[in-house]
Every structure is written in structure tokens, then in C-alpha cells.
Write a structure and sequence with these properties.
Elements lengths: L2 H17 L24 H37 L3 E3 L8 E2 L5 E2 L13 H8 L4 E2 L26 E6 L4 E8 L1 E5 L6 E5 L6 E4 L9 E6 L20 E6 L4 E13 L5 H7 L9 E9 L6 E9 H4 L17
Parallel strand pairs: 4-8, 6-9, 10-13
Antiparallel strand pairs: 1-12, 2-3, 5-6, 5-11, 7-8, 9-10, 11-12, 12-14, 13-14
Length: about 325
């Protein structure tokens, strides 16, 4: 200890003694004690961010599973559903071209098997081709805008019923409007589609006439009148009623599924032959397929009951016989 420190210490002792104070033991300041630091709890914003991130990941996984499952289901449905189902022994249908000449019954399953005469005839026709597409019901008529006239009978279809699929819908007349094909730019005629009812196409036959009665309807919106059409099968009964309430009974003889989306205009025109007039009495029902996807057109062809019952191979699907309710 230096002399200065000793003098200071001695001086302090004297002061302590003079004032009666406790002796000073050390000149060094006391050592500070370090207390544990309490960290603040996690911020609420951070917790919210983590929860939100986890929720978004979960939603993304669910969407991915849904999309993959959805596409897989309809891929399976398209490839497992037969595109053509025919009632054994039923008479074949002869379709008429725009000029009224008979053409072969279309077989739309394989495009390579299709005749080229329809496309050639359409190319030679100076008037616009009457197809019908866009959504709702795409091109389903290869005739010129003035379709072949059916025999003069004024009584149109006003109701259609099919008990096997619980179908019972009113029917109104529908026409068409002009448009242009998005890919080719060709001028086309697009069929209108009835809302909350089935549509009886102008230019198609009336009940009791020789020719093709064409009815179309939505399958997945604005009434969904033809939602269950895909569940029909050959042998099922369909009844149409005219303005006077007279019932005409038909039997399903054929069901076709033809692709309508992402196909050339020529293929859509071939599909449209199902709306042409026929050389016999025919009823044709048309809607989109599959439900909520609508890449194809479902076409149901039926013949009069009196004609079908004469076919030895025919057996009605109705155990009680014809249903004319």
C-alpha cells in the first residue's frame, strides 16, 4: 500500500472515530450481481404467420389432391365408358344431308373411319355451316341455316318424360344465332339452348312425322333438365307430348358419346349429322357430358315403340310394358 493510501485510510479512521461510524473495510466498490434476464414471450404476429403458413400448405395439398383425383376420375370415366351402345336388333338410322339425299349412319368413334363426303359437301356449300358450339351445346347440325323442311304439322313437342331417370321436363322451341369459329374463323350458326327446359330445335320433325325430332338441354346448369340422360340405356322408354297433349312413346336404341372440345371443325361437323333429318321416325336427345366437364356430347337416339316391338330381339326395360303416363 502506498504512503498516500495509508494516509487516506488513517484519515478515514480518525473521522469514523470522531463521528462514531463503522470502519471502512475496503475502498473498492461492491461487485454488482447479474440477475437472469427474462425474455419476452413470442410476438402474436409471429404465431399468426406460422399458423397461416401451415394453413396455406394444407390447403395447397388438398387442392393438389382434388385436381389430380378429379382429372384421374374423368380420364378413367372417358376411357371406361363405351362411346357407342346399341340395342340389339334395332333398325339402323339413315340420315339425310342438307340437300335431302341419304347418307350413311355416322360412326363417330374413330375419326379415321369417318367418310369425307360430309366435309366435302360442307366445303362446297356457299351458305354458312349450321353448327352449334360454344358451350352450351356445340356444333350439332351440319345442315345449312335453312334446315330441310319436315312435313307440315304444326303440333310441336311441349313435354318430354323418361321414367327410368325421373325425367319430366317442359319443352320450348329454340333456334340459332350467327357466330365465328374461334380457331378457323369460319362463319357458323350456333344453336340456342333452352334454360330450365328442354329445347325443340327449329327445322326438326314434330311427333308423328317422318324425320328427326331433336331435343337439347343443359346437364349441369340452368335447370339441369338432362342431368341424368347419361343413365339411360337401350330399351328404356321416352315419351314426348305435343301441344294437344298427345303422347308418343319411343324406345332408346342407341347412345353415342362424341368429343366436342379441342377437335377440328370438320369433326364437329361430322358430329352434327346426328341432328340431320332422317328417313324414318327418330327422336334424338342431346346434352353435354361428363357432368361439370362438358368435353363431349351425349346423344340418345330412340325409335317409336310400335316399330321397336316388332323386332324379335327387343325386350322392353319396363316390366309393366309401355308407359304413357
Amino acid at each position: 500500500m502506498s504512503a498516500v493510501d495509508q494516509r487516506i485510510k488513517q484519515h478515514l479512521r480518525e473521522k469514523e472515530a470522531a463521528f462514531g461510524l463503522a470502519p471502512v473495510r475496503s475502498l473498492r466498490p461492491p461487485t454488482a450481481r447479474l440477475e437472469p434476464v427474462q425474455l419476452p414471450p413470442p410476438l402474436a404476429a409471429g404465431r399468426t404467420l406460422r399458423v397461416g403458413s401451415n394453413l396455406l400448405i394444407a390447403v395447397g395439398l388438398l387442392i393438389l389432391i382434388y385436381v389430380v383425383g378429379y382429372q384421374g376420375y374423368y380420364y378413367w370415366l372417358e376411357n371406361s365408358t363405351p362411346s357407342n351402345v346399341v340395342l340389339a336388333g334395332a333398325p339402323t338410322t339413315t340420315y339425310l344431308s342438307a340437300s335431302g339425299l341419304a347418307t350413311a349412319t355416322p360412326a363417330p368413334v374413330n375419326a379415321a373411319d369417318q367418310p369425307t363426303t360430309v366435309a366435302q359437301a360442307a366445303a362446297a356449300t356457299p351458305t354458312p355451316i349450321a353448327v352449334a358450339s360454344n358451350f352450351p351445346l356445340s356444333p350439332l347440325n351440319s345442315a345449312a341455316p335453312a334446315a330441310p323442311a319436315a312435313p307440315a304439322v304444326t303440333s310441336r313437342v311441349r313435354r318430354v318424360a323418361a321414367p327410368s331417370i325421373a325425367l319430366d321436363a317442359s319443352v320450348i322451341d329454340v333456334g340459332w344465332h350467327a357466330s365465328k369459329d374461334k380457331k378457323s374463323g369460319a362463319e357458323i350458326m350456333i344453336w340456342d339452348v333452352a334454360e330450365f327446359a328442354a329445347g325443340h330445335h327449329q327445322g326438326s320433325a314434330n311427333p308423328g312425322q317422318v324425320g328427326n325430332i331433336v331435343l337439347s338441354g343443359h346437364d349441369d346448369w340452368k335447370g339441369e333438365v338432362f342431368k341424368n340422360l347419361e343413365h339411360l340405356k337401350p330399351g328404356d322408354e321416352i315419351t314426348v307430348y305435343n301441344e294437344e297433349g298427345t303422347a308418343y312413346l319411343y324406345v332408346v336404341t342407341q347412345m353415342e358419346r362424341v368429343r366436342e372440345e379441342n377437335v377440328p371443325l370438320e369433326e364437329r361437323i361430322r358430329n352434327a349429322e346426328y341432328m340431320n333429318q332422317t328417313a324414318d321416325q327418330t327422336l334424338t336427345l342431346i346434352t353435354c357430358w361428363p357432368y361439370k366437364v362438358d368435353t363431349h356430347r351425349l346423344i340418345v337416339i330412340a325409335k317409336p315403340y310400335d316399330v321397336i316391338r316388332q323386332t324379335t330381339a327387343f325386350k322392353t326395360n319396363s316390366p309393366a310394358g309401355p308407359n304413357l303416363r
